[in-house]
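Example 9 (inverse folding). The structure is encoded as follows.
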């Protein structure tokens, strides 16, 4: 017996040593670190399947010789770099199907050459089926699945061109995918409590039988209580507050009636536990919008960038059925303003107060809560970055590891009254807007620096670090570095 125990113990010890060694040599079960393998990945197969469905964007003809022609063109007319090592403006030829009136397009227009106004303006009907010009060095598309219509490496996205979407991006964007991934990933930590802290509110995927049943049982049990316990969300395409409902008594009744009628929950929805005690700013609810940029898939480079706070227009009341007291978005704010009797100047004041910069929030914490620490550098960013690392590890093998793709994810966090951060959602289509002047300023610098970063990765990888340094981006994961150091100390070594 004792002997047996001895064996067990030594096996355990050996196992521990092996694991430790393993980690030290950079092996991470979620990031296999293999390079140039994108054509052998599941995501490549899925992407090839998607091409068969045909082009989504009919304005451009697919040309099987496009990348060969681009190469010939570039042999004759190489991209000219400025003294810093970045392409000069006339070689920053950016093709974008964002309509021209979008703020994004206005920013881009200031430091790239947007030459393709006619067939990139989705509002213009005089659009011809043209071929892609050979001088493009950047694709910046509003359509998050633009690649599905074209064959990467032959019909589009040739050497020297970068593209702002990663095939497989929908796995992060989909609330149902995210919830499933999260459960699976969390189980990896089940015997290491010191390495794990929940960051996603309990989420039920209502197209799943068991989850639907749990949801219905919960609604039934609490039918007499007035508390708001759940948020009901469309699982896909519900960015920027679209398709989000607070489960008030009225909504609850609709959901139950629907269930009784159909014998199942509505497909394509999730229910997420509602945070009853949010941290408030002057009595108003808010969330943090920050950016996670996967700047490169090969090598894997993940960056964090500050954003801003977005506030509700009206004060929070936990029991209220008025969604604008719960949901922070401009649409809700407008409904609130329309149903109230504000003067024009009062309304514009409220609109201007819908977001807050990080430094304003720090001042607020100091003046209203006597909070003396540096909230963002000591608390918010370390937690936000750690959550981003987990998100990437959860999804890495589902993203196409192509060397010329990147993606901007808008990541929303809420903070409870104990100052703990919770992930609310990840968006592949973050509205880079100028709802207020401050928001505009942050977004201009963000996008300008990001375009430089992407150009440096394509044309002058050697200057990438100096470009990063003069920006406001923070490194989250640096796949150029071997071993544990690639994580920038964000998670403990034994927690990989
Ligand atoms: C573009 O540049 C002009 C001139 O420098 C500046 O006034 C304007 O605010 C810029 N617009 C954006 C959206 O960056
Ligand atoms: C776009 O098309 C219109 C009508 O064909 C033409 O008048 C205009 O010059 C074009 N604009 C650009 C930027 O090519
Ligand atoms: C890029 O190519 C297009 C189409 O051939 C052409 O109209 C445009 O003038 C070119 N732009 C530059 C800056 O060379
Ligand atoms: C809130 O509930 C009251 C009472 O049931 C109802 O009259 C009102 O229309 C509801 N408001 C909203 C925004 O649903
Ligand atoms: C708004 O003001 C108008 C005119 O002063 C008044 O008739 C109306 O009752 C007010 N509505 C609300 C919701 O206070």
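The amino acid assigned to each position is listed next.
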């Amino acid at each position: 017996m004792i002997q047996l125990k001895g064996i067990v113990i030594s096996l355990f010890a050996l196992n521990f040593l092996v694991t430790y060694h393993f980690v030290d040599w950079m092996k991470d079960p979620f990031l296999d670190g293999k390079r140039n393998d994108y054509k052998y990945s599941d995501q490549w197969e899925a992407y090839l399947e998607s091409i068969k469905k045909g082009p989504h964007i009919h304005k451009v003809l697919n040309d099987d010789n496009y990348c060969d022609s681009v190469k010939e063109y570039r042999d004759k007319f190489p991209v000219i770099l400025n003294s810093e090592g970045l392409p000069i403006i006339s070689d920053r030829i950016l093709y974008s199907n964002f309509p021209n009136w979008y703020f994004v397009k206005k920013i881009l227009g200031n430091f790239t050459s947007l030459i393709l106004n006619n067939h990139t303006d989705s509002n213009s009907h005089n659009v011809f089926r043209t071929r892609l010009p050979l001088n493009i060095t950047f694709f910046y598309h509003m359509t998050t699945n633009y690649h599905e219509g074209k064959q990467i490496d032959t019909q589009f996205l040739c050497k020297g061109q970068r593209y702002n979407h990663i095939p497989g991006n929908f796995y992060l964007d989909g609330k149902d995918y995210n919830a499933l991934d999260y459960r699976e990933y969390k189980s990896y930590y089940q015997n290491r409590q010191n390495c794990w802290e929940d960051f996603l509110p309990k989420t039920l995927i209502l197209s799943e039988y068991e989850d639907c049943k749990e949801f219905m049982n919960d609604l039934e049990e609490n039918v007499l209580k007035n508390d708001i316990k759940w948020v009901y969300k469309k699982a896909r395409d519900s960015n920027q507050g679209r398709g989000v409902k607070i489960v008030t008594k009225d909504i609850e009744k609709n959901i139950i009636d629907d269930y009784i009628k159909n014998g199942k929950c509505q497909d394509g929805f999730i229910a997420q536990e509602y945070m009853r005690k949010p941290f408030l700013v002057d009595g108003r609810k808010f969330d943090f919008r920050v950016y996670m940029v996967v700047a490169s898939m090969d090598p894997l480079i993940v960056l964090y960038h500050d954003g801003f706070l977005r506030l509700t227009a009206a004060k929070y009341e936990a029991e209220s059925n008025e969604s604008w007291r719960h949901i922070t978005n401009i649409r809700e704010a407008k409904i609130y303003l329309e149903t109230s009797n504000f003067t024009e100047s009062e309304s514009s004041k409220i609109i201007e107060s819908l977001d807050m910069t990080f430094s304003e929030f720090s001042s607020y914490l100091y003046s209203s809560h006597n909070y003396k620490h540096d909230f963002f550098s000591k608390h918010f960013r370390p937690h936000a970055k750690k959550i981003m690392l987990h998100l990437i590890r959860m999804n890495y093998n589902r993203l196409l590891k192509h060397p010329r793709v990147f993606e901007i994810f808008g990541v929303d966090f809420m903070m409870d009254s104990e100052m703990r951060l919770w992930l609310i959602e990840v968006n592949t289509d973050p509205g880079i807007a100028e709802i207020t002047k401050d928001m505009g300023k942050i977004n201009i610098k963000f996008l300008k620096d990001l375009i430089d970063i992407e150009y440096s990765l394509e044309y002058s990888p050697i200057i990438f670090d100096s470009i990063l340094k003069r920006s406001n981006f923070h490194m989250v994961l640096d796949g150029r570095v071997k071993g544990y150091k690639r994580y920038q100390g964000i998670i403990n070594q034994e927690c990989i």
